[in-house]
Write a structure and sequence with these properties.
mainly alpha, two-stranded antiparallel sheet, 18 helices
Length: about 450
């Protein structure tokens, strides 16, 4: 589970060292909590994390706990494969072939000489190891070379192998492997998106719905049962996740999606493999949380509006019926954001909110919270790995504050400084990652 944790507090001093000494247990929390976890290299989010003190966490207790969406996708894939004996047996056979080559240096070298390919394909994340193995096997040069080598292995005299080698692939094995890869690829792409650095909560709805849409378009010959299982398991595990208010708000606060990612009223009546909230439902959720955010920021009838929303009063205003400031804000800021249309040409919604924070102050405040929710535990796991690599035995006496500063420098400040140097002095990276001046 993704717990309510401030990453900067992971290295705070508990009064005891972490080298075999006792560590204070985390205090029990109430049913509700609120948190922002940052797994991005954008400097705006750093200040939000610094401002999130333990006292505020104890007072608010308005935090929601979300499960790892990538893990839920893996459960969908694993369960669906187990329910399809044909897909399960094929994957077991492919795994035996790969294990044979990884254990034999002789045949691995020969396979590499024939194909110029390694047995293990370089992967973006460890989550898609099964899919990457399948991708490598169904590649025609690799498949043909592996088949020929396995025939030769069986023709040679019995050697001191601990286990017999797998039989060579026969018949339509490559075609079935390719079809199996095409079925699993959409969910693998969704996993990569949700495991990426930067904001990921905004991509939960669109990545899952896109994966299912791609899956329904795959033409099948052998694994129709697997396809049906994937759709039914995704519906079982994700319909509640996709209807979660936090993910709805995060998708809306992505200027590349807004309300367009949700179903229109006529589409919501159609029978679909995966149901997501309608535009009307999503806008209702957004409006509710928008009012709550405005009250939290102290923008009401007694407080002045932000500079961009101010207007000089005239004598004719006395003829108008008084309206609450929150209603004015809704019809100005919220409606202006929706009517603005989709914004293209940006890699991250953080770029947009960095520029529009003064134009849409309430929505920008909401974006800081909901876009900072990670869709998976990948960002937290990376911080744990970095903490372990830095906090070695020779650094056992390093203070927790120093450890925090080192991690922040390595993961956030250093990339930002390098980026500014590149922009200022025209530095570019060569193939080895070293900086050199562009000509």
């Amino acid at each position: 589970m993704i717990a309510a944790v401030n990453l900067l507090q992971l290295v705070e001093d508990d009064g005891e060292s972490d080298d075999g000494d006792e560590v204070d247990q985390e205090p029990e929390s109430s049913d509700e909590a609120e948190f922002c976890v940052n797994n991005d290299e954008n400097e705006n989010f750093l200040f939000d994390l610094d401002d999130l003190s333990d006292e505020e966490c104890q007072q608010n207790r308005a935090v929601t706990h979300h499960g790892c969406v990538s893990h839920s996708l893996q459960l969908v894939i694993n369960k669906s494969i187990l329910l399809d004996p044909a897909a399960h047996s094929l994957l077991q056979y492919i795994n035996s072939v790969m294990v044979f080559f990884k254990r034999s240096t002789k045949w691995t070298d020969e396979l590499r000489a024939l194909t110029q390919l390694d047995v293990v394909k370089p992967a973006k994340t460890r989550w898609n190891g099964l899919l990457d193995m399948l991708d490598r096997f169904q590649t025609k040069p690799f498949y043909n070379a592996a088949r020929d080598i396995l025939y030769r292995v069986h023709d040679e005299p019995i050697t001191s192998m601990k286990s017999p080698p797998p039989s060579p692939p026969k018949g339509d094995c490559q075609v079935r492997a390719n079809e199996l890869y095409q079925i699993l690829r959409p969910l693998g792409d969704a996993t990569d998106i949700l495991q990426a650095n930067g904001p990921t909560s905004n991509n939960v709805i669109i990545s899952i719905t896109t994966a299912i849409s791609r899956l329904t378009e795959v033409k099948l010959q052998y694994f129709k049962l697997l396809k049906d299982n994937l759709i039914s398991q995704t519906k079982l595990r994700f319909e509640n996740i996709l209807a979660d208010d936090d993910y709805v708000l995060a998708a809306f606060l992505d200027p590349r999606q807004k309300l367009d990612v949700f179903e229109s009223e006529d589409e919501s009546d159609e029978e679909k493999p995966l149901v997501i909230p309608s535009k009307h439902k999503a806008q209702s959720i957004v409006t509710t949380f928008f009012f709550l955010e405005a009250q939290k920021l102290g923008i009401n009838s007694t407080n002045p509006l932000p500079p961009d929303l101010k207007r000089k009063k005239t004598m004719y205003d006395t003829l108008k019926k008084p309206k609450s400031t929150l209603q004015n804000l809704q019809h100005s800021e919220l409606d202006a954001y929706i009517k603005e249309g989709l914004i293209e040409g940006i890699e991250s919604p953080l770029e947009y909110w960095k520029l529009k924070s003064s134009v849409f102050p309430i929505l920008a405040s909401m974006a800081k919270r909901y876009l900072a929710i990670p869709a998976s535990t990948a960002g937290v796991e990376r911080v744990f790995s970095i903490r372990g690599s830095i906090g070695r035995a020779r650094r056992g006496r390093m203070k927790s504050k120093t450890m925090k500063d080192v991690i922040m420098l390595r993961e956030h400040r250093k990339p930002l400084l390098l980026k500014r140097l590149q922009e200022a002095y025209g530095l570019v990276s060569d193939c080895k990652g070293k900086k050199k001046r562009s000509t």
